[in-house]
């Protein structure tokens, strides 16, 4: 396993970017992924880099701590959204060093989605960024097979597939399937563990666990070793491990620290 670990936004949801960067530095993460494009979920803050002094504050925190900005999120294709509205965040994110933007598709209109995604590919390319397409079981690109087919349809060199280990487990991605994917098609990895149980897509736990009940690496029922040994040399591992109960008990800093400690312990134990 790569020794480069990044702290994803969702591990500490609704945390101000400067605080997230400071926590990452204190825990020993090399990078962070910031949600600079809001999903506009209930209660979700808007941490756009274009808002007021946010860009200057984030830049100062990155320079002060030495933590790197690895990726920005969440560049969604969704009904009623023009992806060109993301341009300012792509430009500012790239200026701060981000090389990746997380993308996902949430529209059932295939023609609309294709046009919007192609625009987003070109927008990312304009700023030297790669789009990492994340398949999510409850989105319109639910699995690895669909993600790879979508990438073929796009035929853009700057699109890669982002494997989130929880989502991959829930759509029953096998090590053999991963082994068949060309190495250059993989982007970075969202790393976490989770329950072995796979709920139906319409079950509350499908979204609930994904957004607030993931488990520390090595403490759940996912075949992480089987997955990770078959994703060759990802650029880094982004620990995306939201767990509201653990944050309530440990606090944000210690939760983030344990996320990293368990990932490193697992890496050493399995020689990944």
Characterization of the model:
This protein is α/β, with parallel strands linked by helices. It has one domain: TIM Barrel, CATH 3.20.20. Helices cover 41% and strands 16% of the residues. The protein has helices at 17-27, 54-65, 87-95, 110-126, 144-154, 165-170, 175-179, 204-212, 224-228, 244-250, 252-270, and strands at residues 5-7, 31-35, 68-77, 100-105, 130-134, 159-164, 186-191, 237-239. An eight-stranded parallel barrel has the order 1-2-3-4-5-6-7-8, surrounded by five helices. Strand 1, helix 1 and strand 2 (31-35) form a beta-alpha-beta unit.
Present the secondary structure layout.
Blueprint: E1 5-7, H1 17-27, E2 31-35, H2 54-65, E3 68-77, H3 87-95, E4 100-105, H4 110-126, E5 130-134, H5 144-154, E6 159-164, H6 165-170, H7 175-179, E7 186-191, H8 204-212, H9 224-228, E8 237-239, H10 244-250, H11 252-270
Parallel strand pairs: 1-2, 1-8, 2-3, 3-4, 4-5, 5-6, 6-7, 7-8
Helix pairs in contact: 1-2, 1-11, 10-11
What descriptors fit this protein?
TIM Barrel; alpha/beta; single chain; 272 residues; 8 strands; 16% strand; 41% helix; eight-stranded parallel barrel
Strand content: 15-25%
Q: Which stretches are poorly predicted, pLDDT < 50 over at least 5 residues?
A: none
Instruction: Indicate the CATH class.
Output: Alpha Beta
Q: If classified by CATH, what would the architecture be? A: Alpha-Beta Barrel
Main β-sheet: number of strands, strand sense, barrel status?
8 strands, parallel, barrel
Which whole number gives the mean pLDDT?
97
Amino-to-carboxy terminus distance? 4 Å
Q: Which strand order do you get reading across the main beta sheet?
A: 1-2-3-4-5-6-7-8
Structural class: alpha/beta
Give the strand tally.
8
Q: Helix-strand pattern, N to C?
A: EHEHEHEHEHEHHEHHEHH
How many domains make up the 3D coordinates? 1
Rg from Cα: 17 Å
Please, how many helices?
Answer: 11
Q: Tell me, what's the shape?
A: globular
CATH superfamily: Divalent-metal-dependent TIM barrel enzymes
Roughly what percent helix?
40-55%
For this structure, the CATH topology is TIM Barrel
């Amino acid at each position: 396993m790569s020794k480069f670990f990044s702290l994803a936004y969702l591990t500490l949801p609704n945390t101000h970017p400067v605080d997230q960067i400071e926590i990452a530095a204190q825990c020993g993460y090399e990078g962070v992924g910031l949600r600079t494009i809001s999903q506009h979920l209930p209660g979700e803050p808007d941490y756009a880099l274009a808002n007021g002094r946010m860009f200057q504050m984030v830049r100062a925190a990155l320079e002060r701590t030495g933590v790197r900005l690895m990726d920005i999120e969440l560049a969604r294709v969704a009904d009623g959204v023009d992806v060109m509205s993301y341009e300012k965040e792509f430009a500012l994110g790239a200026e701060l060093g981000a090389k990746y933007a997380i993308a996902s598709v949430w529209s059932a209109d295939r023609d609309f989605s294709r046009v919007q995604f192609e625009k987003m590919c070109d927008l990312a390319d304009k700023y030297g960024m790669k789009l990492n397409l994340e398949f999510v079981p409850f989105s319109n690109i639910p699995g690895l097979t669909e993600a790879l087919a979508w990438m073929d349809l796009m035929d853009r060199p700057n699109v890669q597939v982002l494997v989130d280990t929880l989502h991959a487990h829930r759509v029953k991605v096998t090590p053999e399937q991963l082994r068949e994917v060309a190495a250059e098609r993989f982007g970075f990895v969202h790393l976490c563990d989770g329950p072995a149980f796979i709920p139906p897509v319409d079950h509350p736990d499908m979204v609930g666990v994904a957004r607030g009940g993931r488990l520390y690496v090595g403490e759940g029922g996912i075949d992480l070793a089987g997955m990770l040994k078959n994703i060759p040399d990802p650029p880094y591992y982004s620990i995306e491990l939201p767990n509201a109960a653990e944050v309530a008990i440990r606090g944000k800093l210690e939760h983030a620290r344990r996320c990293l400690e368990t990932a490193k312990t697992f890496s050493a134990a399995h020689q990944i």
